[in-house]
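User: Please run a holo structure prediction.
Assistant: Happy to. Please share the sequence and the ligand.
User: Here you go; the ligand is inosinic acid.
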Amino acid sequence: MKTIEEQGYHFEEWLTPAEIAKDVQQVADRISEDYKDKEPLFVIVLNGAFVFAADLIRSLKDVRCEMTFIRVSSYFGMSTTGQLQFIVPLQQVVENRDVIIVEDIVDSGLTIHQLKAHMRGLGATSVRVATMLFKPNKLEYDDAKPEYIGREITDEFVIGYGLDFDGFRRDLSSIYKVKE
Ligand code: IMP
Ligand code: MG
């Protein structure tokens, strides 16, 4: 069992590169089927989703598509409702486009909930979400349930394959779960 330490926490390998590749291909196959007659715009959420997105788009079959990037952070001010801050705003027109938001992981769903509203407000024809990981037990926003999911996970914290712990460990090819 491969293990790794980060800032005093111990992690063990949960998904190998081969297992991740299978999950990604399964997502790509479904998107290829659903979008074969469309020209989707992938909106890739930085920083975490860049690894998953790079594999996903290269696993598609015959989907004429475009891609663009945004970087957001959900911060909580004085109020309890989170607000999305655009660190790298959307640079592409989404009006009349079939948008697929690409995320590394959906947790409370706040990020996706707000991004979907943002895209719809800008006139997107449709907005769906593809995520490598999804924590269904943590979901607080019903409309943020992703349409395309690599794998579901319970509440544990994970790193690797784009996912970070304070900015580090995105480079790991496997996904590691924190040990109790
Ligand atoms: P949400 O807006 O609550 O759904 O949060 C999603 C974001 O939280 C993801 O894009 C990640 O940046 C971060 N996140 C949630 N769970 C994890 C985890 O287990 N490892 C690393 N980042 C996580
Ligand atoms: Mg993220």
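Residues 17-34 form the longest helix (18 residues).
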